[in-house]
Amino acid sequence: MAKWLQVVETNCADAAREAEFNEWYDKTHLPDVLETPGFISATRYENSNPAEGQAKFFAAYEIETDDIDAFMKRNRDNMAKKRAEGRFSELLVMVSRGLYRQTFSISR
After folding, report:
1. CA pair distance 32, 55, nearest whole angstrom
2. CA distances from 62 to 5, 14, 41 (A)
3. What is the pLDDT of residue 50?
4. 64-90: per-residue pLDDT in tens?
5. Which residues share a beta bridge with 98?
6. Is 18 within 8 Å of 26 (Cβ atoms)?
7. Annotated domain spans of the chain
8. What pLDDT digit, counting tens, does each position of 10-29 carry?
């Protein structure tokens, strides 16, 4: 099974509501994303000192699938359903997104 990493950089549209944004992202959005079969894990990070134009938040999603195109379609469909159900936040500002196939791994 091929391993992939999807990375998503985001900001909160309203700094005064950042706690609300983080609550939504961690408790609603990440579980919603992980409903798509093939997602293995989701981890978020915060940039301690983002420069102008940089994202404050970074999410890494581990994926295992042999058909990344079919997986991405299932994920898009799932996210469209969640949006239609009102489970998206107006505070989400997408900065960048990338999808990477694992080519090598080493651990201790």
Report:
1. 22
2. 5, 28, 5
3. 94
4. 999 999 999 999 999 999 999 999 999
5. 7
6. no
7. 3-101
8. 999 999 999 999 999 999 99
What residue type is assigned to position 99 of the chain?
A: L
CATH annotation of 3-101: 3.30.70.100
If residue 45 lies in a helix (H) or strand (E), which one and from where to where? strand 39-46
pLDDT score of 96: 98
Please enumerate in sequence order all residues whose Cβ is within 8 A of that of 55, keeping only pairs 6 or more positions apart, or say none: 9, 10, 11, 47, 95, 96
With 0-12 / 13-18 / 19 or more C-beta atoms within 10 angstroms meaning exposed / middle / buried, residue 16 is exposed
What is the distance between the alpha carbons of residues 8 and 83, in angstroms, rounded to a whole number? Answer: 17
Give the Cβ contact number of residue 8 at 10 Å.
Answer: 20
